[in-house]
Amino acid sequence: MKTTIKISTLLLAASLMSFAPNPLDTAKNKSEFSRFTKTSIKWKNPEINLGEIIQNKPVNIEFEFTNTGENPIIISSVQASCGCTTTDFTKTPILPGESTQIKAVFNAAAKGVFKKQVTVITNAEEAPKVLIFTGTVI
Questions:
Q1: Is the pLDDT of residue 28 over 60?
Q2: Other C-beta atoms within 10 Å of 69: how many?
Q3: What secondary structure letter does DSSP report for 18?
Q4: Angle at alpha carbon of residue 134, lines to 59 and 118, rounded to 5°
Q5: Other beta carbons less than 10 A from residue 110's beta carbon
Q6: Tell me, what's the pLDDT at 119?
Q7: How far apart are CA 78 and CA 37, in angstroms?
Q8: Cα angle at 67 between 63 and 72, to 5 degrees?
Q9: How confident is the model at residue 100 (pLDDT cuts 50, 70, 90)?
Q10: N or C: which end of the chain has fewer CB within 10 A?
Q11: 54 class by beta-carbon count within 10 Å (0-12 exposed, 13-18 middle, 19+ buried)
């Protein structure tokens, strides 16, 4: 009985291992994937000064960029540095030569000078990219 359980366990382990990816193949695939998916972005203005804005009145901000590489740009995430900023971005690939925007809406609750960040994660060579907007809330 014990021998049967041992043999069954060994057969089960061997069959499961046959489905595991080969580490060398995985590393090779990741290397090839990154080589073919890396591309470049030209930002129109990665730092925007909003000047004076009114407290509790949302302000729309657009960071425009162009895909200057040879492969599509894929935006995987966009994160604002605070809860007072929401973001929106295209979920489809941006083809070479195409332009689009990272959109943000800032709603300032406190008066005074501010400096906020939006971090953009893409497959571009210079990723992640930190975009900045500044101004004074009156």
A1: no
A2: 19
A3: T
A4: 75
A5: 9
A6: 98
A7: 19
A8: 120
A9: very high
A10: N
A11: exposed
What sign does the dihedral 68-135-89-80 (CA atoms) show? positive
Do 89 and 63 meet the contact criterion of CB atoms below 8 Å apart?
no
Pairwise CA distance, residues 79 & 91, whole Å: 14
Measure the CA–CA gap between 115 and 81, rounded to whole angstroms. 10
Q: Where are the beta strands (DSSP E) in 6-137?
A: 41-43, 47-53, 59-67, 75-80, 85-88, 99-106, 112-122, 129-137
56: nearest Cα among 89, 5, 121, 105: 105
Confidence of residue 65 (pLDDT cuts 50, 70, 90): very high
Cα separation of 117 and 136, whole Å?
Answer: 15
Distance CA 74, CA 104 (A): 18
Each as own residue / partner, the long-range contacts of residues 40-46 (CB below 8 Å, 24 or more positions apart, any chain) are 40/67, 40/68, 40/69, 40/124, 40/125, 40/126, 41/65, 41/66, 41/67, 41/68, 41/69, 41/73, 41/122, 41/124, 41/126, 41/129, 42/66, 42/68, 43/129, 43/131, 46/129, 46/130, 46/131, 46/132
